């Protein structure tokens, strides 16, 4: 979990906000409470990354509507919803809309802490996957049309001679393009190149 990971608490009940803020701040989280969903949404563009904890039943914009708006404008933020007794169907709806978990009141402090740790760990992994995909796409985009053809041939298991025949170029030229592809894709072996192509969806392009 990131040091001083930020948590945004949205609940119209001041006692709940204060209790959660105390619990989480003493557990190493940087907490920012909000009385209403409107206040949170107004501040959202300036908040940066953090985990959202919101009550489901609130006046005006409730937790479900808040979740929809967060996912539409800041889909990278993990959202945990808090529900009262009998609100489990709403919590299930929230999960379908993208909430990572729900906490049925009253809940144990330790469970909330564990859910938050899992949320930040999951988000860190997702961010790394997205960054890796972006980097891989940039490597593919750097290939020339001929280098892309040679890449397709390599991941299809063709030899240099077979690729040369396919595209009517010399085997020596294929070797040059092959070396360029390996360098640009930062692949140390053909097997690694194939894995990259599979991850990027480049096979057959």
Automatic annotation (TrEMBL):
Residues bearing PTM 4-aspartylphosphate: 55
InterPro entries, per database record: CheY-like_superfamily (IPR011006), Sig_transdc_resp-reg_C-effctor (IPR016032), Sig_transdc_resp-reg_receiver (IPR001789), Tscrpt_reg_LuxR_C (IPR000792), WH-like_DNA-bd_sf (IPR036388)
GO molecular function, one term: DNA binding
Keywords for the protein's UniProt record, in alphabetical order: DNA-binding, Phosphoprotein, Transcription, Transcription regulation, Two-component regulatory system
Highest taxon listed in the record's lineage: Bacteria
SUPFAM superfamilies: C-terminal effector domain of the bipartite response regulators, CheY-like
Record Gene3D superfamilies: 3.40.50.2300, Winged helix-like DNA-binding domain superfamily/Winged helix DNA-binding domain
NCBIfam families: PRK09390.1
Protein name according to UniProt: DNA-binding response regulator
Gene coding for it: fixJ
